[in-house]
TrEMBL record:
Organism: Actinidia chinensis var. chinensis (Chinese soft-hair kiwi)
Ranges of residues in domain Apple: 346-438
Superkingdom of the source species: Eukaryota
N-terminal signal peptide: 1-26
GO molecular function, one term: ATP binding
PANTHER family noted in UniProt: G-TYPE LECTIN S-RECEPTOR-LIKE SERINE/THREONINE-PROTEIN KINASE SD2-5 (PTHR47976), RECEPTOR-LIKE SERINE_THREONINE-PROTEIN KINASE (PTHR47976:SF30)
Protein name, per record: G-type lectin S-receptor-like serine/threonine-protein kinase
UniProt KW keywords: ATP-binding, Glycoprotein, Kinase, Lectin, Membrane, Nucleotide-binding, Receptor, Signal, Transferase, Transmembrane, Transmembrane helix
Transmembrane residue ranges: 458-481
Amino acid sequence: MVMGKEENLCWAFLVLLITILRIDNSFQWINAQLHYDDPVANLSTSWTNYNYDSGFISDEYNNLQPILFRNHFFCGFWCDKSSGACLFAILLASDTNGRLPQLVWSANRDSPVRQSATLGFTQNGDLILKNDDGSFVWSTNTGGKSVSGLNLTEEGNLVLYDKNNEKVWQSFDHPTDSLLLGQKLVLGNKLTASASASNWSRGSFSLAVQRNGLFAYIESDPPQYYFVDDFNLMTTPYIQFENGRFSRFSIPSASAAQLQFLKLGPDGHLNVYEWKGPDYNWMMADLLASYIDDCEYPLVCGKFGICSNRQCFCPDEANRFETRFFRPTNYGTPNQGCTPIIAISCDQSQYHSLMELQNTTYFNYRLLTYNDNFKLDYKTDLEGCKKACLNNCSCRAAQFVHSWDNLEGRGCLLISEVFSLVESRGNFVNASVFLKVQNPAAPTTLASLPKRSRRVTIILGSSLGAFFGVFLMAALGFFLYGRVKEDKELCEIYLNQVPGMAARFSYEDLTTKTNDFSTKLGEGGFGSVFKGTLHNGTQIAVKCLHGLGQVEKSFLS
């Protein structure tokens, strides 16, 4: 049967229509699953972290599977491509297509989930994140609080609201390391940097609002400040990020664009990021560049590292000591700090000493007046400062200030965890740092031991000497016994080697046959000859040899 052109066109159109409907249904299914074009979600909704290969929002290292979307903000599962670790997160992109996304908030930075993890918005109004095995990871703890919906706002704020559109919970109240435009850092809250650019978990640096100002510090015991902006927050207990400005700090060329965010970086720098030309990329500006020198950051040169003119080196290099006590942690990257060659041992404190670093200060010497738990002791002199550190095993270094800004005065600071140091040549401070080091233990001699130890040593040595003496005597006895046994066996071997060897008799048989060696016929080399008679009457001559070794060899030959 031959079809006409009209029928062929009808069939082609039908196939094309079915294909279009299938594609449309697929996209509708994806959108229904992801709510990709919807910034709002209702109760009793859940999402699964499927590994779609559809080319959704991503960068070089990460991939986003969106749940909610509004303008430049995307909310969903942000996953590391190499490890598969995922965050429930909010990202700010450069356009509505999700180009160059920047992570600005996450719920589970310290507990990433895997593929097939679920996010559930329960009928009870709680937003719950569970891992692929069903284990609990994170929640808004809003169950039973009359929550009626979930919304991603135009400002990038994830909000759970009630039937009156009042906020019950919002991500703006739980910042991680970033602030968006209009977001407030309230009293008692803080930003905490990530451990590194590739490690989302909490790192070492924090920025907190307190009653008496804004404080940037490194997490230690106690916390050590590296920046302080002191002012009273009694009237407005918060600081708001607004168009490149945070507190009294601002970047000079901030535009009025929405695409800005503030981030505390893994290195402790407080940066403003802004999407702008002429290259149309994320531009970064250090908000505190005019207030903090690069060498005044706690880990600019790592632990025990010395910073000078943006260069890092170890204490031994700075003072050219004959004995080396420190080595670079990583020889290829000096800013990773230095490591003691011999670790400090409290059990060998007699070998502790102090390495003096003249014209050197601790990274935060200017801020020691702000911390009641980490400040100079003005009552202690230089020798007392050094002695106090040597007598305290937890002390790893002592900072002693002789004078400050041309003012006479002194002060001592004991440091239990040593971060970066600063070479202070040319600055208005006369100070030294004393690093505690562990010297190699001296060889132990008997004279250096106390009397009781010497007595124990002598007794132990005598006992061991007697034991080894008995052991040597026993070994010698076994050796001699073995030699005798070996000689007897050697005799048998030699006799068996004699060609045409006659019958052999035991000593008892010869004694009987010679009548106890009673008739002596004569005497020759190596022994005497005696007369004997065999059982058949044959008379024989028996020679009795004296000594076996060479006699046997001579006889056999």
